[in-house]
Design a protein that fits this description.
Order of helices and strands: HEHEEEEEEEEHEEE
Structural class: alpha/beta
Largest sheet: 12 strands, mixed
Distance between the termini: 73 Å
Length: about 210
């Protein structure tokens, strides 16, 4: 009986190791979404996912999600360093009654590029930063949200915007917890995280 229990424990451990290995192997550095995709797909270019939420679990930390075509890809919560880049296709998020994008990881460096995020008049926040090391919005358009374009709730970090509607309207920024944030301005085109001017303050810079 003891031998059987030991064998069962070993088998369970091996099965668990293989399960974690399969998950790790399934994560790619670059994944893809399409309006005609399927979240059951591996999110490759030839077999894309349908939503950002579906792709994020299959994208490795520091990886990138790209859009194959202009479509609505759904609200998403980001909990790791990640880039969502739809600059050439203008991906969109329809966020009725919810937040468009939530960033919640104190170590995450997040870049959002080429997105149109629409709250349909009753969305909460376009981008809600609960915790992050840095968040950069590049060509991100926020519209029709009931609260804020960007709600910054973390106590520290760097927030930047370049060619983004929400980033250029001071009233659309909100610092909920009086954080000391480095607001990146005059961002470098080649490297959006490099700023020629940075302001450390609890208040967002004027447009």
């Amino acid at each position: 009986m003891t031998t059987f229990k030991s064998t069962l424990k070993i088998f369970s451990f091996v099965a668990l190791v293989f399960a974690f290995a399969s998950i790790a192997q399934a994560q790619a550095t670059r994944t893809w979404v399409s309006g005609v995709g399927d979240d059951a797909n591996p999110c490759s270019r030839t077999a894309p996912c349908k939503t950002f939420a579906g792709a994020i679990s299959k994208t490795a930390t520091n990886g990138e999600i790209n859009c194959l075509d202009p479509a609505g890809y759904g609200a998403v919560t980001i909990t790791k360093s990640l880039t969502i880049d739809c600059e050439d296709t203008q991906g969109s998020i329809l966020a009725s009654l919810v937040n468009g994008v939530i960033v919640n990881s104190s170590t995450a460096h997040v870049k959002l590029r080429g997105l149109s995020i629409n709250g349909a008049g009753n969305g909460i926040n376009c981008v809600r930063v609960i915790a992050a090391a840095s968040v950069v919005l590049d060509e991100v358009v926020c519209a029709n949200f009931s609260q804020h374009g960007v709600s910054v709730e973390n106590s520290s970090g760097a927030i930047g915007g370049r060619r983004s509607a929400a980033a250029r309207i001071c009233s659309s920024w909100s610092a909920e917890s009086t954080p000391t944030i480095t607001w990146l301005t005059e961002l470098d085109n080649a490297n959006p995280m490099q700023a020629s001017r940075a302001v450390t303050s609890s208040t967002a810079p004027a447009a």
